[in-house]
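Fold sample X.
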Amino acid sequence: MDYVLRTLELFLYALEILLLVRVLSSWIPSARNHPIVQFIVQITDPLLTPIRKLINKSIFGGKGSMLDFSPLVAFLLLNVLQNLINQVALSL
């Protein structure tokens, strides 16, 4: 059971790193067409797209919003999941 929790924790940590790389690469316009960046976008889009839809439906969203807060929400969710995994691992 411990291996499963540690593997899940490492997966979430890797997802956080990919999100960070995606955010940082979005600040560099020439990096958007790089194959590694496009791969990272394909990996992280299933996480960010539903969050973007929820934000757009909320009072914080809308077509006029210039900032994308979906990575910030994703970081928070991943952190909550990691804390839950740690709590479960400690209770076993």
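Fold sample Y, listed below.
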Amino acid sequence: MPGSLSRLMDVIKIITVFVALTLFFYVMIVWVADALEEHSEEDRPKGRAVKVFNPQREGSLETIHDVKDRLMFFYWFGE
């Protein structure tokens, strides 16, 4: 009987450590995700600068030719 009680305590310890580490890693992942999200918002232009981009219309399908041109532009100019 004392052996089974000891085994039960070991299982409880393992479960406790598992739950604690799971919560720790969850909090760390949320913290890193928030830090990265805040960093991406800092890329906004400041002062009189204007960020220029060409938003794609929702629902528009690009043809394979458009995708190929964009890919070639990216490889050629690196942008």
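Sample Y note: Helices lie at 2-41, 64-77.
Also: The chain has a mean pLDDT of 82.
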